[in-house]
Write a structure and sequence with these properties.
two-stranded antiparallel sheet, TIM Barrel, about 280 residues, alpha/beta, eight-stranded parallel β-barrel
């Protein structure tokens, strides 16, 4: 399928497509702070996002869930148990019940009394020239409410990126946010007997094309090599990878030509890329 699509693109407007391809993929990878600068600050909080800019990240990534009263909060898990001093299912409570929770003390006393933020608050912390990757962790019923929050934020479409593991959700997100980049998240598992990756890399790209999204955001330890990235680029798809915290992995992925690298340690990783042998 990918080969047929690529042949069609070449037959249509080869020169224009080649120019667009060269322009779009000439840059070095963007550094995306995973849940903010989460190595040093409590994940998915305003301090973590603000620290990402101090650590020279190009973008921050955050996760969202929606409360019972349709407020969109920034938190990775569907419950508050792991990152706060209480245990609530986010979808089963109103936002008011989450506001007293301490989402920072688990990381360090320095961050004690850090609240679970609303997405609207985090969007207000995105400077000009920086981006936010919003991972949709909850059902797609959040999308109409997400549209309003994003519209109210006044961020430009180029600053706002959506990612999701759920294929239907990211496909619907692209329809609702046609001017924004949307990437389908995918992991990889290696068969212990055959050594084959599941899903196969070309299958991931095929599904992304079917969804009409702008690219993929895949696990860095899978079959992500120059061949995979080149194939994606030839079909108009970006390739981003998660979650990279070692220089050696970052060097390999940069050589492969990926467009973005998500990391818990943006300053550390950037310093390694700058020192690449």
């Amino acid at each position: 399928m990918l080969h047929r699509i690529w042949q069609t693109l070449l037959l249509c407007k080869p020169l224009l497509f080649l120019m667009a391809f060269t322009s779009a993929y000439a840059a070095t990878p963007q550094i995306v702070a995973h849940r903010g600068a989460s190595h040093d600050a409590p994940e998915n909080t305003v301090p973590a996002v603000m620290l990402a800019w101090k650590k020279n990240a190009d973008a921050t990534e955050v996760d969202i869930h929606m409360t019972r009263d349709h407020q969109i909060v920034v938190i990775h898990d569907s419950s508050t148990k792991r990152t706060t001093d209480s245990n609530f299912k986010v979808a089963e409570v109103d936002y008011e019940q989450l506001t007293p929770l301490d989402a920072g003390k688990w990381k360090s006393e320095t961050y004690a009394e850090t609240p679970i933020p609303l997405l609207s608050e985090v969007l207000g912390k995105i400077p000009a020239g920086k981006r936010i990757f919003i991972e949709i962790k909850c059902p797609s019923s959040v999308l109409p409410y997400l549209q309003k929050v994003v519209a109210d934020s006044k961020l430009s479409s180029s600053q706002t990126v959506f990612i999701a593991f759920d294929w239907e959700t990211i496909r619907e997100a692209k329809k609702r946010f046609p001017e924004c980049k949307c990437f389908w998240l995918s992991g990889f598992k290696k068969d212990k007997i055959t050594g084959e990756w599941n899903p196969k890399s070309d299958q991931v790209l095929e599904r992304a094309l079917e969804a009409g999204v702008d690219g993929v955001d895949v696990y860095h330890g899978g079959p992500v090599d120059k061949g995979f990235v080149d194939l994606a680029h030839r079909n108009g798809l970006e390739v981003h990878v998660y979650t990279v915290n070692q220089w050696e992995d970052a060097w390999r992925l940069m050589n492969a030509g990926v467009d973005g690298i998500t990391t818990d340690r943006p300053a550390f990783l950037r310093s390694g890329l700058n020192k690449k042998p």
